[in-house]
Amino acid sequence: MTLAALAVLALLLLSGCGSSDSEGDSGESSGESDSSAAAGTCSYPADSQSAAKDVKAPAEKPEAKGTVDATVSTSAGDLAVTLDADRTPCTVNSFLSLAKQKYFDDTECHRLTTEGIFVLQCGDPTGTGSGGPGYSFADELDGSETYPAGTLAMANSGPDTNGSQFFVVYDDSSLPPDYTVFGQLDEKSTKIVADIAAKGTDSGAGDGAPKEEVTITEVTANS
């Protein structure tokens, strides 16, 4: 696969919910975290899309600190994740808020890529790749982001357009540092996703819905 083709695949795959009404390009990274997060508060302005499910925006002041263990329960097995609330407080705050409001429950992971980059994308209750929670929030980046196997990161449709869609990296992937990395899967959980990917997409193409339907049944923070 050429570098140009890889770039196109990355842009198509990792477009997510945000202020855009449809999937689009990932844009340029801001290269730094949102200043409001550094001040201890987060901003979650309403965007142009209605929420895919009826949820409230998160509180502006994150409660979680340090690392937070959570479980993404799916039809393929439980995924154990560790969230980094110190590095990405606003992202983790949103993820935990949506989980508590059961936003992710009974939601299919709608997209899998098996060529060039290796990710499973989830978090859109509509299953279309354009659904979101009705609000957006800023990237939390420092420009050093990499995407090895086990990475948990936010999908977006350009700078500061994060919403609810996220992706799991099941094999080392080369992507620009434009996607907020907010957690990590353990080795067993990464293998579960890799086993899903080994079955390919429903069309046999390198980019599409996974052949094995994957549904998130619940996301819970472990106390």
What is the H/E order?
A: HHEEHEEEEEEHEE
User: What is the CATH topology descriptor?
Assistant: Cyclophilin
What general outline do the C-alpha atoms trace? Answer: globular
Query: What is the C-level CATH assignment?
Result: Mainly Beta
Distance between the termini: 44 Å
* Uncertain residue ranges: 1-9, 17-35
Mean pLDDT: 88
CATH superfamily: Cyclophilin-like
Query: Count the helices. How many?
Result: 4
Strand content: 15-25%
The major beta sheet can be summarized as:
10 strands, antiparallel
CATH architecture: Beta Barrel
Strand order, largest beta sheet: 3-10-1-2-8-6-7-5-4-9
Number of domains: 1
CA-based gyration radius? 16 Å
Q: Based on DSSP secondary structure assignment, what is the total number of beta strands?
A: 10
* Helix/strand/pairing category: alpha+beta
Share in helix:
10-25%
Supply database-style keywords.
alpha+beta
Question: How would you describe this protein?
Answer:
With 223 residues, the protein is of the alpha+beta class. Helices cover 17% and strands 21% of the residues. It contains 4 helices and 10 strands; from the N terminus they run ααββαββββββαββ. Strands 3-10-1-2-8-6-7-5-4-9 form a 10-stranded antiparallel beta sheet. It is globular, with a radius of gyration of 16 Å. The model is unreliable at 1-9 and 17-35 (pLDDT under 50).
